[in-house]
Each structure stands twice: as structure tokens, then as C-alpha cells.
């Protein structure tokens, strides 16, 4: 089982191809907070509004 936030899944979703190709059993729990935290933080650090 993999537990990740929306950011982590978005950045690493390409790894699902490996899971399918190797026929692995995997459950992914995505924690939803309605914000991409890393992107939001980067926007704030650069002086951009959150959108």
C-alpha cells in the first residue's frame, strides 16, 4: 500500500506503468486537501497568488 498526497501522486504517477507491467498488487491511498502543497508553497515563495 502506498499513501501519498495529491502532489506525490501527480509527480510519481508514471510509476503506475511499472506496477501494471510487473503485474504487482498495489493499493494507493491519495490524501486529498484540495491544494497542491508544493506548488502552493513555490508560488508563495515567488510572490504569486495562490490559484
Write the layout of secondary structure elements.
Layout: E1 2-5, H1 6-12, H2 16-21, E2 28-31, H3 37-45
Parallel strand pairs: 1-2
Task: Report the strand count.
Answer: 2
**Which H/E pattern describes the elements?**
EHHEH
What general outline do the C-alpha atoms trace? Answer: elongated
| Distance between the ends | 31 Å
Computed Rg: 14 Å
How many domains? The number is 1
* Low-pLDDT residue spans: none
Largest sheet: 2 strands, parallel
Walk me through the structure:
The protein is of the alpha+beta class and 51 residues long. It has one domain (2-45). Helices cover 43% and strands 16% of the residues. The protein is built from 3 helices and 2 strands. It has a two-stranded parallel ribbon with strand order 1-2. The radius of gyration is 14 Å and the shape is elongated. The model has no long low-confidence stretch (mean pLDDT 87).
Summarize the structure.
This protein has 51 residues and is an alpha+beta fold. It is built from three helices and two strands; from the N terminus they run E-H-H-E-H. It has one domain (2-45).
Amino acid at each position: 500500500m502506498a499513501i501519498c498526497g495529491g502532489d506525490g501522486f501527480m509527480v510519481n504517477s508514471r510509476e503506475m506503468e511499472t506496477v501494471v507491467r510487473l503485474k504487482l498488487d498495489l493499493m494507493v491511498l491519495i490524501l486529498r486537501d484540495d491544494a497542491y502543497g508544493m506548488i502552493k508553497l513555490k508560488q508563495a515563495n515567488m510572490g504569486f497568488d495562490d490559484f
